[in-house]
């Protein structure tokens, strides 16, 4: 899972550009095991073709991503057509069919112009495609997917290149994307389409698998957390040792370097702050099933003797060098935690001051003679 998350961030990363996690599609499958989850440097669509004669696997594929209606549609306004005979009705239906057939023929001709020998053609349309149009594409060896999700249309262009086609006028081959492989896979009763082997892909899909829905949802939450953590690390350009190492080092620094330089009540406040920081390693020890006090003393002794970033190994309960074990935390998470803790503590103390002032004012208030009379 970790390598898949890192691969996803590497795929969408662009220098000097904020990372957009919406470029990564997260798709869950209730099958196999969690370890079978993987990252696809392309796109996986949760539907397949709607025609039995369409190809299920294509190689060297020109991908046409479009938002064009290829089916009968309702009129935008409250319009109607009046006919008096069956022949007039047939002419009306035929004229609509001619309009759709002409659109399909344009796409077929465009495919013949764009595809060289050994190249194939795939249409992914955001709008609908009627059965007769699908049949025309199937005879031409075109794989056509209809009603793709809007969010996947942008991901497709980022993965395959090209652009979303909104009109059949002035079609150019530069509008098409490219994928090395497009294949349709059936899992149980569900069909999935894999658009893979995309050179210079800037979008991808995390394909998460598990034995049941509950497991896949837990994996999905973990994947989202992982994506955000790696994103934060890339944008911060730095990490801090994890496993409670930062909190122990900060607490020791406050107690031994800062407190001796202070006087009065300020010293007590800094001591309380230093002790509060230790709640993180204490919680790690408690959640791992170890004695909190024993673990904390070990960590503090190891820190003082080595002067290095010492964290807790949750498997053994022993001190470890967090950096050597690859245990890290995000800088912005630690910074936000320290800032929020300070602000909340100040607010709570302010509430105490307000309540104390209110009681004092009540004692000092003089009785009103008129009310006593």
Question: How would you explain this protein's 3D organization?
Answer:
With 373 residues, the chain is an alpha/beta fold. Among the domains are: 51-74 and 83-152 and 162-176, GroEL (3-Layer(bba) Sandwich); 241-359, GROEL, domain 1, CATH 1.10.560. Helices cover 47% and strands 18% of the residues. The protein is built from twelve helices and 13 strands. It has helices at residues 2-12, 86-114, 131-139, 150-160, 213-236, 245-258, 265-277, 279-287, 292-306, 322-325, 331-364, 369-372; strands spanning 24-29, 38-40, 43-45, 57-66, 120-125, 143-145, 177-187, 190-196, 204-209, 239-241, 310-312, 319-321, 328-330. The chain has a six-stranded mixed sheet. It has a three-stranded mixed sheet with strand order 1-9-2. A two-stranded antiparallel sheet has the order 10-13. Strand 7 and strand 8 form a beta hairpin. The mean pLDDT is 87. One of its GO terms (cellular component) is cytoplasm. It is found in: Cytoplasm. One of its GO terms (molecular function) is ATP-dependent protein folding chaperone. InterPro entries: Chaperone_TCP-1, Cpn60/GroEL/TCP-1, GroEL-like_apical_dom_sf, GROEL-like_equatorial_sf.
